[in-house]
Amino acid sequence: MKTLTAAAAVLFTATLSATALAEVPMDKYNKSCAICHAAGTAGAPKTHDVEAWKPHLAKGEETLMKSVHNGLNAMPPKGMCFDCSDEDYKALIEFMSTPAK
């Protein structure tokens, strides 16, 4: 099962890489995502914590995007980024779920 989860996470990250914006909209990360993801507030997976993101990525892009749009647990709908496009969300997820560069 761990192998399947790891494979799904790798596949999802590769999909994000292929479809996400070339550049992360850091202004949107700083005003919306960083509030919780920088410190892991309220159980949010921390930015660049690959292990913390694996279970979320393993759910697949459709489920993850649904969670972003509708909110999940303490995360409000759209993560409080009301001007983010789906491409922005994908780039932000890729940025947060991969190791720091």
UniProtKB/TrEMBL annotation:
Keyword annotations of the record: Electron transport, Heme, Iron, Metal-binding, Signal, Transport
Signal peptide: 1-22
Record-annotated Cytochrome c domain positions: 3-100
Domain of life of the native organism: Bacteria
Family matches, as PROSITE patterns: CYTC (PS51007)
Molecular-function GO term, any one: iron ion binding
Keyword set includes Cell membrane: no
Keyword Electron transport: yes
InterPro entries: Cyt_c-like_dom, Cyt_c-like_dom_sf, Cyt_CIE
Identification of the protein by name: Cytochrome c5 family protein
Species the sequence originates in: Parahaliea aestuarii
Lineage of the organism: Bacteria, Pseudomonadati, Pseudomonadota, Gammaproteobacteria, Cellvibrionales
